UniProtKB/TrEMBL annotation:
Protein name: SAM-dependent methlyltransferase
Keyword terms of this UniProt record: Transferase
One MF term in the entry's GO annotations: S-adenosylmethionine-dependent methyltransferase activity
Chain ranges of the Methyltransferase domain: 93-186
The species this protein was found in: Streptomyces natalensis ATCC 27448
Superkingdom of this protein's organism: Bacteria
Pfam families: Methyltransf_25
Length: 283
């Protein structure tokens, strides 16, 4: 008996998102990753060193890029801090892994197996190349799969995270799949931008962010409703909004600015948009 493989890309929207990321070669992602070979697809947190704006003009942009990369790696470290106790024998899942930088960091910290999934074949190929280059491809593997239905084993993962990738999917479907894959007592962590339930829906700045990334930003309350429906109990909720504003202010000073910096800063400062970390246990 044969079965027809389930397609990774199931809707026209998913295909459009995959096309976007397959074609994406934005310097704001690639040049930051070139600093040390950790390629991220998320933003940064923490105060930046004001000294990077001083000094010789011909190396100013290089200093800014290195500092932006330090801030985005600091963000990944904060996410990993919230995964709880992870042992080398555990298994982790990076859902919406991008070019794989956070997975590499997780393996380096915990020594465990890490799987990443993305609907972008270009990202998966790039990330697997980086794992091979670092000699960790026996422990860090990336897969062309849909994070709403990965086909990965039930209850196999001690930790799962989404780092700025939930705005592309239905949260109830996503958290149902994560709950299936997590071991009981396992930890799920998400860092995401989310809209203010009262004012976000009518914010022009939030709409501009949606349009820029072809995504659908969820209201803050939607995360907690979808978690409650799928046996995920929040243990820590951290508002990172104030911590991420310096990153955006510095990025606006760089040659890598894309034009979306002003909407982010406006949305954060007007309170229509939040940068949130939620760590939840599977019960």
């Amino acid at each position: 008996m044969t079965t027809t493989p389930v397609p990774v890309l199931r809707t026209a929207y998913q295909k459009s998102v995959a096309d976007y990321w397959n074609a994406e070669k934005a310097p704001v992602n690639l040049r930051l990753g070139d600093v040390d070979g950790l390629y991220h697809h998320h933003y940064g947190i923490g105060d930046y060193d004001r000294a990077v704006l001083d000094g010789p003009e011909d190396t100013r942009d290089e200093r800014i890029i290195a500092e932006l990369h330090r801030l985005e790696s600091a963000q990944a470290d904060v996410l990993l801090d919230h995964l709880g106790p992870i042992a080398p024998g555990h298994r982790l899942l990076d859902a919406g892994c991008g070019r794989g930088g956070s997975s590499i960091m997780a393996n380096a910290r915990f020594g465990c197996q890490v799987d990443g999934v993305s609907i972008s074949e270009a990202q998966v190929e790039f990330a697997n190349g980086q794992a091979r280059k670092r000699g960790v491809d026996d422990k860090v593997r990336y897969h062309f799969r849909n994070m709403l239905d990965t086909g990965l084993p039930t209850g196999a993962f001690q930790g799962i995270w989404n780092n700025e990738s939930t705005m592309y999917v239905d949260l109830f479907d996503l958290f149902a799949e994560h709950a299936r894959q997590l071991a009981f007592g396992g930890r799920y962590v998400v860092i995401t931008g989310c809209s203010n339930d009262v004012t976000g829906g009518r914010s022009k700045a939030v709409s501009r962010i949606d349009e820029h990334y072809t995504c659908n930003i969820h209201p803050r309350s939607a995360y907690f409703k979808a978690m409650a429906a799928n046996g995920l109990v929040p243990m820590n909720v951290v508002d990172l909004t104030d911590a991420t504003i310096p990153y955006w202010e510095l990025r606006a000073e760089s040659s890598l600015a894309t034009g979306v910096e002003d909407p982010f800063l406006t949305a954060y400062k007007e309170g229509s948009f939040h940068y949130l970390l939620i760590a939840a246990d599977r019960v």
